[in-house]
């Protein structure tokens, strides 16, 4: 039973209360770069269904910019699983993986490609790998970060913030940012869950995913504080 909750991000009433004070204390430091380089773009076609075998009610795409120069190890893990990897009989892919957790006004979480319920998932480096760094801050909605169950326990699960969540800084490794599809991210964050749980009532699944062929480009610190898309969807 403990594993069911192991990868859930801990959020207490006390943490909510101190959020504003935390944000004020950890405002922009002098050593934070003015520009951030997106080295990869990962896209995810996500559908909402009544149940696992029903036809999609809707399908939309989100695109995530990845900061491979800041978090090369974490981005390599994420990008490799997004593209798909086979090792013998094992297949590492986010395709077919459900969004298993929704916490309104906090996060949506996915990435458990082995069990689909938050108890599994593994990295390309082994069952788990280290917290690479905490350079990027969960300072606005749309940040993509590794789920874990303690220090240096990253696997394959990841979440997207729905609100500024800087109390996660220093505990979870942020490595990407949603650059298009934020309207759908917010919509998913409003989906109903079973009473007393964070399990969505509808079946929400990554139907397909992959990497865009891009040339590295810059995003500014100001852009990354946006609550909306950073680039127009085409």
TrEMBL record:
Top-level EC class: isomerase
Keyword Transferase annotated: no
Signal peptide boundaries: 1-21
GO terms for biological process, alphabetical: protein folding
Highest classification ranks of the organism: Eukaryota, Metazoa, Spiralia, Gnathifera, Rotifera
EC number(s) from the headed UniProt entry: 5.2.1.8
One term under GO cellular component: cytoplasm
Membrane-spanning parts: none
InterPro entries: Cyclophilin-like_dom_sf, Cyclophilin-type_PPIase_dom
Keywords: Isomerase, Rotamase, Signal
Domain of life: Eukaryota
UniProt record similarity statement: Belongs to the cyclophilin-type PPIase family.
PPIase cyclophilin-type domain span: 61-211
One of the Pfam families matching this protein, by short name: Pro_isomerase
Gene3D superfamilies noted in UniProt: Cyclophilin-like (2.40.100.10)
SUPFAM superfamilies: Cyclophilin-like
Role summary: PPIases accelerate the folding of proteins. It catalyzes the cis-trans isomerization of proline imidic peptide bonds in oligopeptides.
Protein name: Peptidyl-prolyl cis-trans isomerase
Protein's UniProt keywords contain Signal: yes
Catalytic activity: [protein]-peptidylproline (omega=180) = [protein]-peptidylproline (omega=0)
Entry's Gene Ontology molecular function annotations: cyclosporin A binding; peptidyl-prolyl cis-trans isomerase activity
